[in-house]
C-alpha cells in the first residue's frame, strides 16, 4: 500500500505558531479561533482542537459585566492571559492590548506589548485599527513580538462609531479598509481579524493578502473564523447577532443543574451516606 505523503494537518501540529497559521492559509485549511479568559476554559478549548485562543478584551463584557470593552486595563488583560496560557498545550495564544495602552505613541505600544509577552507569556498581541497604528505595529514587530491586526468593526472605537452595525458598506469606507489591510500586512502583522464587514469585501481582502484573515461576521471566505466563546456556548444569550451560531445552550443547562443542587440541599438529599465520611 502506498504511503500517505500529504503534509501534516493542523491537528498533527504539537504547538500552533504564527508559521502554522500561515501554512494553513497556504494549504487552504480554515483556522478555528475562539476567545478564552480563564484556565479551565482554555484547557477544554485547547483539547478540543482550537488553533488560536484569543484572550479578548471582550472579557470586559462577558466576565466583568461592562457595557463596552473600554474599562479593561493592561493589568486586567495580563491576568486573564496568564490564566489562559497555563491551560494550553497546543493553541496559539493571542492577547488584545486594551484601549489606551497603544494609541498614544509607538513607545507606549511597545511597552504594553513587552509587558504582555514577559508577564503573561502570550504568544502574540492584537491591536485594533488601521493607518493610525501602523507605526506602532511596525515598532512592536521589529522588537520580535508577533502582532495580529483588527479591522472593520473595532469595539474599542464604539463611541466614535456610535453603533455596532456592519462597517464598510459604503465604497469610501470599503476602500479605506482595503488600504489599511495592505498597510497592516506591510507593517508585519501575521494575521488580521475582519469584524462585521460585508462578505464580498472580506473575500476580496482575503484574496489580496498573503497573510491569513480571521473573520467574525465577515462571511465564509476568510481564512478562519473566531467567535466569543460565551456566545458560541450559549452562556450569554442576551446578545444575538446574526453571525453567532450557538453550539450549546449552557445558560439553561447550568441554571437547571444549580437549581437541582439547591433542591437537593433544601431537602437534605445531598449529601447522602456515600458522599459522607
Share in β-strands: 5-15%
The CATH topology of the largest domain turns out to be TIM Barrel
Low-pLDDT sequence parts:
none
Shape: globular
Sequence of strands across the biggest β-sheet: 1-2-3-4-5-6-7-8
Number of helices: 11
The total beta strand count reads 8
What is the N-to-C order of secondary-structure elements (H for helix, E for strand)? HEHEHHEHEHEHHEHEEHH
Helix content: 40-55%
Average of pLDDT: 94
Query: Number of domains in the coordinates?
Result: 2
**C-alpha-based Rg, rounded:** 20 Å
Please report the distance between the alpha carbons of the first and last residues: 59 Å
- Biggest sheet character: 8 strands, parallel, barrel
Output the CATH class name of the largest domain. Answer: Alpha Beta
At the fourth CATH level, what is the homologous superfamily of the largest domain?
Phosphoenolpyruvate-binding domains
CATH architecture of the largest domain: Alpha-Beta Barrel
Summing up helix and strand content along with how strands pair, one would put the structural category as alpha/beta
Based on the model shown, name its key terms.
eight-stranded parallel barrel, TIM Barrel, alpha/beta, globular, 11 helices, single chain, 277 residues
Explain the overall architecture:
The protein has 2 domains: 237 residues, Alpha-Beta Barrel (TIM Barrel); 29 residues, no CATH class. It is 41% helix and 13% strand. It contains 11 helices and 8 strands. An 8-stranded parallel beta barrel has the order 1-2-3-4-5-6-7-8, surrounded by 7 helices. Helix 9 links the parallel strand 6 and strand 7. The protein starts with 17 loop residues before the first helix and ends in an 11-residue tail after the last helix. The mean pLDDT is 94.
Amino acid at each position: 500500500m502506498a504511503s500517505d505523503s500529504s503534509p501534516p494537518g493542523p491537528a498533527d501540529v504539537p504547538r500552533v505558531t504564527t508559521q502554522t497559521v500561515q501554512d494553513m492559509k497556504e494549504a487552504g485549511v480554515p483556522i478555528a479561533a475562539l476567545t478564552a479568559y480563564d484556565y479551565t476554559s482554555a484547557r477544554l478549548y485547547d483539547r478540543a482542537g482550537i488553533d488560536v485562543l484569543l484572550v479578548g478584551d471582550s472579557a470586559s463584557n462577558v466576565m466583568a459585566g461592562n457595557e463596552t470593552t473600554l474599562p479593561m486595563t493592561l493589568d486586567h488583560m495580563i491576568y486573564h492571559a496568564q490564566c489562559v496560557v497555563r491551560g494550553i498545550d497546543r493553541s496559539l495564544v493571542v492577547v488584545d492590548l486594551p484601549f489606551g495602552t497603544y494609541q498614544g505613541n509607538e513607545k507606549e505600544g511597545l511597552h504594553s506589548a513587552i509587558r504582555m509577552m514577559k508577564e503573561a507569556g502570550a504568544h502574540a498581541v492584537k491591536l485594533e485599527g488601521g493607518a493610525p497604528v501602523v507605526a506602532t505595529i511596525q515598532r512592536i514587530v521589529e522588537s520580535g513580538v508577533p502582532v495580529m491586526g483588527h479591522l472593520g468593526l473595532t469595539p474599542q472605537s464604539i463611541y466614535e462609531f456610535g453603533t455596532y452595525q456592519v462597517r464598510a458598506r459604503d465604497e469610501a469606507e470599503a476602500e479605506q479598509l482595503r488600504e489599511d489591510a495592505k498597510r497592516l500586512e506591510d507593517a508585519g502583522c501575521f494575521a488580521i481579524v475582519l469584524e462585521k464587514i460585508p462578505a464580498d469585501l472580506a473575500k476580496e481582502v482575503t484574496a489580496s493578502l498573503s497573510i491569513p484573515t480571521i473573520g467574525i461576521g465577515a462571511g465564509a471566505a476568510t481564512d478562519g473564523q473566531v467567535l466569543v466563546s460565551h456566545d458560541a456556548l450559549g452562556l450569554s444569550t442576551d446578545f444575538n447577532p446574526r453571525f453567532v451560531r450557538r453550539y450549546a445552550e449552557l445558560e439553561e443547562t447550568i441554571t437547571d443543574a444549580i437549581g437541582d443542587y439547591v433542591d437537593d440541599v433544601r431537602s437534605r438529599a445531598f449529601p447522602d451516606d456515600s458522599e459522607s465520611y
